[in-house]
Design goal:
It comes from Neobacillus citreus. This protein is α/β, with parallel strands linked by helices and 371 residues long. Helix content is 34%, strand content 27%. The chain folds into 2 domains: 3-169 and 290-369, 3-Layer(aba) Sandwich (Aminopeptidase), CATH 3.40.630; 173-285, Alpha-Beta Plaits.
Amino acid sequence: MESKNLELAIQLRHDLHQHPELSNQEFWTKQYLIDFLKKYTQLEIVDRGSWFYAIYHSKIGRRNIAFRADFDALPIEETINLPYGSKFPGVSHKCGHDGHSATLCGFALEIDQKGCDNNIFFLFQHAEETGNGAAECSVFIKENNIDEIFGWHNWSGVEKNTVHVIDGTAQFASKGMSIYMEGVPSHASEPEKGINPSFAIAKIIDAIPGYISPANNKGIVLCTIVQVDIGAKAFGVNASKGVLRMTIRARYEEEMVKLQENLEKAAKAEAEKYGLKVSFEYQEEFPETANHKESSDKIRQVCKEKGIPMAEMTEAFRASEDFGHYTKLTKGSYCYIGNGEDYPNLHSYEYDFRDDLIETGVELFKGLAEL
């Protein structure tokens, strides 16, 4: 990577870090990235509102290859002392999306200056943290006849500057599930005159271990209870409303769907038994991120040819990522570049993206662009 391009990418990363914006609020971030590409490249810019992409039109144009970066931040306070620390209280780039976008821009500089035999699409995506960003951007795949798409994420707890790759499932599917139940209030001294949802909710919770048991699933299935909210702190009133909130998660998306169906079935059965109203709500939905072996093999090939350290992942990450929306529509692979075994974890106060990963990411993308 040209030293000047690396310097520009690092400075861009620091600028983005100072101005973090939450999912679906990335107005300054999006425009700043567009302005950077307009200033330093001749790429075509396509503005799609919340997100955008840039295009390098090759004179040969053999294939249409896309590379994606996310650019939203997290509702986490910046507590470490950085010369480019967040200017916005309670919001910071504690997942490294500032580094992902800076890497994609550095890659764009290199392609714009040096050319490529393929048409290259640089996709800048909003709202990865909430799961709706890629769902909205996925129209990009068919609209541009994308043949293949690649992306990467920095990751802690693994070897520094080493590319980690896997075939098939790379990250679990997940979603937030809420079960609402409503009965009838009564005086606490006369519970028989009301309908309290507590017993129904308790039985749903009691059924969860059976649904997620390894004996009943081919992959890991998880159901994490995040909140149980029943009634109010009023000792004279028999509770009549309750909500059970869970994160359901599975290595294989079809098994997450099966878990959801089992929970809905159980809730409806208990509601009918007790005479309760029941409804469901879902949010922050992430598909299974599943890599195509052909695309993962290309990552392996580039690492070998360029001498980039590489390691095979033995299992998928439980955390979710919305990149799977793209690989449902075209070939692609999502890989990881290590921050180091002892580096602070993502989404922690102590975390900050490592600038030295930018060049590794750019060189990986450059190699993939030519295949």
